[in-house]
C-alpha cells in the first residue's frame, strides 16, 4: 500500500506533489540528467579500473566487404579491385596498431601516417587510400555507410586504384570490445622510372577519408601476384586468425546507452500524458509549461534516438 | 491549443528542421550533434517567448523548459558519443 502511494506520488498529480507528478518536476528531470551522466561516466571509466562489462557483437565477413565494394564499383563503372595480400597485411597491421595504441584515427597519436603500413608491408604505391569503420553489425552496413559519405565514396569508387586489402580486427579499444574494419586501396608504382606520380587530392582532415599519391623518390618493387581467391581471415588483436565471421554476444555500450535514453524518455512521455489526463479529468487549472510542446520535443528525442545507429567511419 | 494553434507552428518548424538535419547526415556526428543542440535551444526559446507573449512567464516555467531541453539534448548526445 505504501509502495503504491509512493509510486502514485511520482506518476500522478495529487496533494503530495502540488498537483503535478513528482517525476515531472524540474528538479526530478535534472536528477535524471545527472544519473544519465553518471551512468556514462561509469561506462567510460569502468574499464580503466579493471571492470570489463561491455563488449560488441558483430558478424563481419571480409569476403563480404570485398564483394560489396566491388559490387558498388561495378555499378558505378569503376572496375573491380583485386585483393592484394600485401595490402591485406598492411590493413591488419593498421588495425592492430589502432588497438595497441588505443586510437581511432587515420594518423596515430605518435604521428604514424597510414602510408607507413603500406611501405612496411612491402607495397610501394602510386596511389593509396584508406577507409575505416568500427562497430558496424554487418559488412553491408559498413559499406553502405562509406557509400553515404561523399569523401569515403570517392575513395571507394576511385578509378585510380586497382587493388584492395581488407582486415577485420577485433579487440580492446579504450576499454571496450570493438570491431574495426580497415579498407586499404592501392595502385602499385610500376617501374623505377615512374618518379613523378600523378596527384590525388589529399584530404588530411582527421575526420575524412585519406587518399594520397606516393611521394617522389620511393623505390618500386616488383608487382605481386594477382588476387588471392582464398577465403580471407579475420584477425584478432593478438594476431590470431579467427575465421571469416564472428558472432560474440555481449552487451554493446551503444545499445545500453540507447536503451537508457529510450526508457527514460518514454517514461517521461507516459507520465506527461497520464498527468495531463488526470488534471483534465479533475478539471484543475495548473500553472506550468505547455504539455503539447513538451510532448512534441520528447517525441523528437524518441524519434532521433530510434533512428540513431551504431557504427562510425573515418 | 485551440485558437492559439498558430503559435505552435514555429515550434513544429524548429523540431521538423532538427529532425531533417539529423536524418540527412547519418554519419556526420558533428552535424547531428549540432542539430540536436539547435533543436533544444529552439524549443527552450520557443517556450520562453510563448509564455512571455501570453504574460504567464515565471521562473518555474523557465526551469521546466530548461530541464526538459537539457534532458533531451543530453539524452541524444550520449547516444551520439557512443556510436
Provide keyphrases for this structure.
heterodimer, A: 314 residues, alpha/beta, 7-stranded mixed beta sheet, 9 helices, 7 strands, elongated, B: 83 residues, mainly alpha, 77% helix
Q: How would the blueprint of this fold be written?
A:
The complex is a heterodimer of chains A (314) and B (83).
Chain A: H1 2-11, H2 26-45, H3 62-75, E1 82-83, H4 85-101, H5 115-120, E2 125-134, H6 139-148, H7 150-157, E3 163-173, E4 176-188, E5 210-213, E6 235-236, H8 253-282, H9 291-307, E7 312-313
Parallel strand pairs in A: 1-3, 3-6
Antiparallel strand pairs in A: 2-4, 2-5, 2-7, 3-4
Helix pairs in contact in A: 2-8, 3-6, 8-9
Chain B: H1 9-23, H2 29-53, H3 59-82
Helix pairs in contact in B: 1-2, 2-3
Could you describe the 3D structure shown?
The complex is a heterodimer of chains A (314) and B (83). Chain A has 314 residues and is of the alpha/beta class. Chain A is 42% helix and 14% strand. Chain A is built from nine helices and seven strands; from the N terminus they run αααβααβααββββααβ. In chain A, strands 1, 2, 3, 4, 5, 6 and 7 form a seven-stranded mixed β-sheet that branches. In chain A, helix 2 (26-45) runs antiparallel to helix 8 and helix 3 (62-75) runs parallel beside helix 6. Chain B is mainly alpha-helical and 83 residues long. Chain B has helices spanning 9-23, 29-53, 59-82. In chain B, helix 1 runs antiparallel to helix 2 (29-53) and helix 2 runs antiparallel to helix 3 (59-82). The longest helix of chain B has 25 residues, at 29-53. The chains are: A alpha/beta (314), B mainly alpha (83).
Spans of at least 5 consecutive residues with low confidence of chain B: none
**Span between N and C termini of chain A?**
55 Å
Most extensive chain interface and residues per partner: A-B, 46 and 46 residues
Q: What is the number of helices of chain A?
A: 9
The count of DSSP E runs of length 2 or more, i.e. the number of strands of chain B, is: 0
Shape of chain A: elongated
Amino acid at each position: 500500500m505504501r509502495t503504491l502511494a509512493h509510486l502514485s506520488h511520482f506518476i500522478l498529480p495529487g496533494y503530495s506533489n502540488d498537483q503535478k507528478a513528482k517525476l515531472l518536476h524540474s528538479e526530478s528531470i535534472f536528477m535524471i540528467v545527472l544519473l544519465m551522466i553518471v551512468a556514462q561516466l561509469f561506462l567510460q571509466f569502468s574499464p580503466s579500473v579493471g571492470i570489463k562489462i561491455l563488449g560488441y557483437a558483430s558478424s563481419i565477413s571480409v569476403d563480404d566487404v570485398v564483394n560489396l565494394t566491388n559490387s558498388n564499383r561495378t555499378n558505378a563503372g569503376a572496375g573491380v579491385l583485386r585483393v592484394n595480400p600485401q595490402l591485406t597485411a598492411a590493413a591488419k597491421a593498421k588495425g592492430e596498431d589502432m588497438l595497441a595504441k588505443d586510437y581511432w584515427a587515420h594518423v596515430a597519436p605518435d604521428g604514424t601516417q597510414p602510408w607507413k603500413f603500406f611501405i612496411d608491408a612491402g607495397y610501394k604505391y602510386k596511389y593509396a587510400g584508406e577507409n575505416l569503420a568500427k562497430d558496424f553489425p554487418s559488412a553491408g552496413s559498413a559499406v553502405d555507410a562509406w557509400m553515404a559519405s561523399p569523401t569515403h565514396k570517392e575513395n571507394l569508387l576511385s578509378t585510380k586504384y586497382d587493388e584492395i586489402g581488407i582486415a577485420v580486427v577485433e579487440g580492446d579499444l579504450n576499454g571496450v570490445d570493438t570491431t574495426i574494419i580497415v579498407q586499404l586501396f592501392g595502385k602499385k608504382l610500376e617501374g623505377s622510372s615512374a618518379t613523378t606520380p600523378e596527384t590525388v587530392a589529399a584530404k588530411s582532415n582527421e575526420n575524412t577519408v585519406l587518399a594520397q599519391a606516393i611521394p617522389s623518390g620511393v623505390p618500386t618493387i616488383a608487382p605481386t601476384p594477382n588476387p588471392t581467391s582464398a577465403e580471407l581471415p579475420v584477425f584478432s588483436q593478438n594476431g590470431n586468425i579467427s575465421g571469416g565471421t564472428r558472432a560474440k554476444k555481449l552487451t554493446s555500450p551503444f545499445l545500453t546507452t540507447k536503451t537508457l535514453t529510450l526508457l527514460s524518455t518514454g517514461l517521461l512521455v507516459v507520465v506527461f500524458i497520464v498527468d495531463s489526463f488526470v488534471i483534465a479529468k479533475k478539471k484543475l487549472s495548473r500553472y506550468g509549461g505547455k504539455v503539447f510542446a513538451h510532448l512534441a520535443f520528447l517525441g523528437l528525442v524518441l524519434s532521433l534516438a530510434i533512428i540513431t545507429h551504431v557504427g562510425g567511419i573515418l | 491549443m485551440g485558437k492559439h494553434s498558430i503559435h505552435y507552428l514555429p515550434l513544429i518548424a524548429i523540431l521538423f528542421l532538427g529532425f531533417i538535419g539529423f536524418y540527412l547526415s547519418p554519419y556526420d556526428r558533428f552535424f547531428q550533434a549540432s542539430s540536436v543542440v539547435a533543436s533544444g535551444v529552439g524549443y527552450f526559446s520557443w517556450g520562453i517567448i510563448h509564455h512571455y507573449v501570453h504574460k504567464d512567464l515565471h521562473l518555474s516555467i523557465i526551469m521546466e523548459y530548461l530541464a526538459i531541453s537539457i534532458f533531451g539534448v543530453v539524452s541524444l548526445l550520449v547516444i551520439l558519443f557512443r556510436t
